[in-house]
Amino acid sequence: MYTNINFKTKKALKEAVASGKAVSVYQPGLGEIPNNGTVFLEGPHYPEPHGWYAEAEVRDGLVVKVR
């Protein structure tokens, strides 16, 4: 799964979520995206090689916590 913003680092993602920026997630191709629960993210977006992976908590479609 990816975030709606193409974060180059996991640190940048964490900082955006901590500052209150609205970050949503999407899944290219098939599959459902949970509005609430745990998701696993990767970045930066394809075709760049993935350099970070994260576990995140989603509430009402927005990322609220990144681990």
Task: Give the count of structural domains.
Answer: 1
Structural class: mainly beta
Tally of individual helices: 1
How far apart lie the N and C ends?
Answer: 15 Å
How much strand content do the residues show? 35-45%
Structure description:
The structure is a single chain. This protein has 67 residues and is mostly beta strands. It has one domain. It contains one helix and five strands, in the order E-H-E-E-E-E. The protein has a three-stranded antiparallel sheet with strand order 3-4-5, with helices on one face. It has a two-stranded antiparallel ribbon with strand order 1-2. A hairpin with a 2-residue loop joins strand 4 and strand 5. The radius of gyration is 11 Å and the shape is globular. 13% of the residues are buried. The mean pLDDT is 96.
Q: Can you give keywords for this protein?
A:
1 helix; 3-stranded antiparallel β-sheet; two-stranded antiparallel ribbon; globular; mainly beta
SSE diagram, text form:
Layout: E1 2-3, H1 10-18, E2 25-26, E3 37-43, E4 52-59, E5 62-66
Antiparallel strand pairs: 1-2, 3-4, 4-5
